[in-house]
Write a structure and sequence with these properties.
By secondary structure, the protein is α/β, with parallel strands linked by helices. The structure holds 3-methyl-2-oxobutanoic acid and sodium ion. It comes from Rhodothalassium salexigens DSM 2132. This is 3-methyl-2-oxobutanoate hydroxymethyltransferase. One of its GO terms (cellular component) is cytoplasm.
Length: about 270
C-alpha cells in the first residue's frame, strides 16, 4: 500500500507527476477516493453540493468539522486538507489561528486552506510559523461571490492579471505549501505555475498546473449546477433515479421484498 502523503512530499511534487486531488465530505466517499488521490479536500463547496445552500458564505464551522471528522476516518494515505469557512479567519491572524487549531485538533487534518492572496499573506505566515500547513486559493474565490456578482472566470484580459499573480506570489512567499488557482484563463494559470516554487493546483485553470482538483459531486454528475469547467466522469444522479424508480415499482407491485430478502421461521426447513 502507498505511504501516507505528507506536506513535504506533496510540495516536492512541483513540476513532477501531476497531483490528483478531489473533494470529499463523507466517510464512504473518502474510503473510495483515498487510494486513488494524492490529496482529499474537505471543501466548503459542501455547503452547496451537500447542503443545498446558494453559496459557500453561510457554511457553519461546526458542520464542516463534523464532515471533516468523517472524512478523516476514511482517509488513510491521501493528504487531508480542510477549508476554513467564510467568516472564520479573515478578521485577523489570531482568529485564523483559533479556527485552524480547531480544524487540526478536532478533525485530524494535516493542513488548512483559505481563500485570498495579498490580503491574507500575513495570516498564512502566522499559521505556518505556528506549525499549521496552509494552502492558498486565488483567482476565483467563491467566498467573495457577492463582491464579483457571480462565478465567472478571472484573468481573461491581460490587464486583470497582475492582482492575481500578486495574490499567488504573496501566499507562496508567506509559506503556503501549495496554491489552488480557480477559474482563470490558461495563459495566466501557466504563468503562475511557472513562477511559483510550490505546486499550483488548478480547478477551471487549464492543464498547465501542477495538479488538478474537482468537486466530487460535480464530476460524478450528482450536482445539477456544476460549472462549465467540470468534466463529468459519471452520471450518478441519473443512476440513482433509475435505481430508486425500479425500487418504487417493485414496492408498488409487491415484487420487493422477494423470497431472498425475507425471513421465515427458524424451523420451516432452512428457509430462514
Ligand atoms: O471548496 C472546494 O471544493 C474548493 C475547491 C478548490 C474545489 O475549494
Ligand atoms: Na473551497
Amino acid at each position: 500500500s502507498k505511504p501516507r502523503m505528507t506536506v513535504p512530499r506533496f510540495r516536492a511534487r512541483k513540476r513532477g507527476e501531476p497531483l490528483v486531488c478531489l473533494t470529499a465530505y463523507t466517510y464512504p466517499m473518502a474510503r473510495l477516493l483515498d487510494p486513488l488521490c494524492d490529496l482529499l479536500l474537505v471543501g466548503d463547496s459542501l455547503a452547496m453540493v451537500v447542503h443545498g445552500l446558494d453559496s459557500t458564505v453561510p457554511l457553519d464551522l461546526d458542520l464542516l468539522l463534523a464532515h471533516a471528522r468523517a472524512v478523516r476516518r476514511g482517509a488513510e494515505t491521501a493528504l487531508m486538507v480542510v477549508d476554513l469557512p467564510f467568516g472564520s479567519y479573515e478578521a485577523s491572524p489570531t482568529q485564523a489561528f483559533e479556527t485552524a487549531c480547531r480544524v487540526m485538533k478536532e478533525t485530524g487534518a494535516q493542513a488548512v486552506k483559505l481563500e485570498g492572496g495579498t490580503a491574507q499573506a500575513a495570516t498564512v505566515r502566522f499559521l505556518v510559523d505556528r506549525g499549521i500547513p496552509v494552502m492558498g486559493h486565488v483567482g476565483l474565490r467563491p467566498q467573495s461571490v457577492h463582491l464579483y456578482g457571480g462565478y465567472g472566470a478571472h484573468g481573461r484580459n491581460r490587464e486583470d492579471w497582475q492582482p492575481i499573480i500578486d495574490d499567488a506570489y504573496a501566499v507562496a512567499d508567506a509559506g503556503a505549501f501549495g496554491v489552488v488557482v480557480e477559474g482563470v484563463a490558461e495563459p495566466l494559470a501557466r504563468e503562475i505555475t511557472e513562477a511559483l516554487a510550490v505546486p499550483v493546483i488548478g480547478i477551471g485553470a487549464s492543464a498547465a498546473c501542477d495538479g488538478q482538483v474537482l468537486v466530487i459531486d460535480d464530476m460524478l454528475g450528482m450536482f445539477d449546477r456544476a460549472p462549465k469547467f467540470v468534466k463529468r466522469y459519471a452520471a450518478l444522479g441519473d443512476e440513482i433515479t433509475r435505481a430508486v424508480s425500479a425500487y418504487a415499482e417493485d414496492v408498488r407491485a409487491r415484487r420487493f421484498p422477494g423470497p431472498d430478502q425475507t425471513y421465515g421461521l427458524k424451523d420451516d426447513g432452512g428457509r430462514s
